[in-house]
Amino acid sequence: MTQYLLFDSLTWPEVAGLPRNCPIVMPLGTGFDRIRLAEALNQPPQIALLPSFPFGWRGSGLPVPENILRGYLQNLINSLREDGFTNVFLLTPPDTNLAFGNWQIVQSYPSFPDPLFSLEDLSKVVLIPIGHTEQHGHHLPLSTDTIIIDSITSQVINAIPDRACKLPVMPYGVSTHRSSFAGTLNAGGRAFEDFWLAVLDVLVLLGFTRFYLLSGHGGNCSFLTNVVKYAGERHPHIFCATSYLYLSSPQGIQILEQYRQSSTGGMGHACELETSLMLFLHPDLVHMDRVVDETEFISTPSYYMDWVEGGSLIANPPWSDDTQSGAYGAGSLATKEKGKLWFEAAVQEKIGHVMEIHEQYRRRAEKKKPWNANLIKPLPS
């Protein structure tokens, strides 16, 4: 019988140890039949399942142009092929022509059985959580960024359901350091921007006017800034915002400093912060016995690594220059108790941002009313 592995629950050394002929499958949506999938692949001993791609195709409730979706997916698939995996497949419902040829498996299944929105959501802020599937050292799973940002966003919805709604979390983002560690995927910066701008175009067409793109992965943030700028130019009547990760506000930084035990360099990636959050949210996926602390980032006064990156220089040197395990920081100092405190603070930070987005939209709409009225001139008699 075929054994199924959840790819994003593995650590990168575990991915590195997979046979390179192991089939790896990315499903569009959920609800597919695993028995039929194994039959389509001739009953291999193992199949590694990637996290489901949540929307973007016809029938998903939020379709984008197929060439834009294809570019995003092709970059992700190519990431794994560059790692040497020879059997990487896309699992799709029928009538989804993405030109993947023999690498596309077609199966009838309810790929997105529930509607994404209702009419009452149109006046809410649409929260768009974007994580990633990438290495997090020897002790955290590839799903770390996705779990954290989806949990924060879901808790915001629980707290203020009348002010915000959310999309399903996207588990794929941008990692320009992809080749350094096995299992790290990369959607590609330009394909990423094109996809999210297309998503916003569809949502605006449906009548939504307020958006908050929330990233759990630092590599997404500069590209999301571009998306927000493009969207604001293309749709001047909306208010669309993003922010740098979470706990990056003055209040967030204050609570980080209040409870952290590490010095500068201890909070970067698979670090004291992310490990603490995962110990609180998903301790079954954390392997504290495998933690490797790495805090010796090549630092200068204007360029160094910490949670809110400091210094005036922006650069992107290879990660392998600074870390052998894939971690930046002191994961050994993590505790569940700190994770709970930081998680709750992150939720409050995002609730505050949602309320600001509503206020920004309201005040700007009111300011535009007289301006729009002045543009309407009576016809000459």
Tell me what the structure shows.
The protein is α/β, with parallel strands linked by helices and 381 residues long. Helices cover 37% and strands 12% of the residues. α8 (272-281) packs across α9 (336-375).
Poorly predicted sequence stretches spanning 5 or more consecutive residues = none
Strand coverage percent: 5-15%
Return the average pLDDT rounded to an integer: 94
Distance between the termini: 84 Å
- Gyration radius (Cα, Å) is 22 Å
Count the DSSP helices.
9
Question: How many runs of DSSP E, i.e. beta strands?
Answer: 11
The major pleated sheet works out as:
5 strands, parallel
Give the overall silhouette. Answer: globular
Task: List key phrases describing it.
9 helices; globular; alpha/beta; five-stranded parallel β-sheet; four-stranded parallel β-sheet; 381 residues; 37% helix
Topology:
Elements (H helix, E strand, L loop, with lengths): L2 E4 L5 H5 L7 E4 L6 H7 L5 E4 L16 H17 L5 E5 L11 E3 L18 E6 L13 H16 L4 E3 L22 H18 L3 E6 L2 H17 L4 E4 L7 H10 L7 E3 L2 H10 L46 E2 L6 H40 L6
Parallel strand pairs: 1-3, 2-3, 2-4, 4-5, 6-7, 6-8, 8-9
Antiparallel strand pairs: 10-11
Helix pairs in contact: 3-5, 4-8, 4-9, 5-6, 7-9, 8-9
Describe the structure concisely.
The protein has nine helices and eleven strands. It has 381 residues and is α/β, with parallel strands linked by helices.
